[in-house]
Design a protein that fits this description.
single chain; about 45% helix; globular; mainly alpha
C-alpha cells in the first residue's frame, strides 16, 4: 500500500530520503536550492513536499 504524507519537518530520515531522491533523480537546475527547499517545507503551509 502507498501512503502519501505531507512533510513538515526537515530533520529526520523521511526528509533526508526525499531530498536524496530529488538530488539523484533531477538535474540541479530542475529544483530549488536545497536550503530554500528546506525552509519552504518547514515554514510555508502552502508549500508541499511529498
Amino acid at each position: 500500500m502507498l501512503t502519501i504524507e505531507r512533510l513538515r519537518e526537515t530533520e529526520g530520515k523521511d526528509y533526508s530520503y526525499i531530498e536524496e531522491l530529488l538530488v539523484t533523480t533531477f538535474p540541479v537546475d530542475e529544483y530549488r536550492d536545497l536550503e530554500t527547499q528546506r525552509k519552504n517545507t518547514a515554514e510555508k503551509p502552502s508549500f508541499t513536499t511529498i
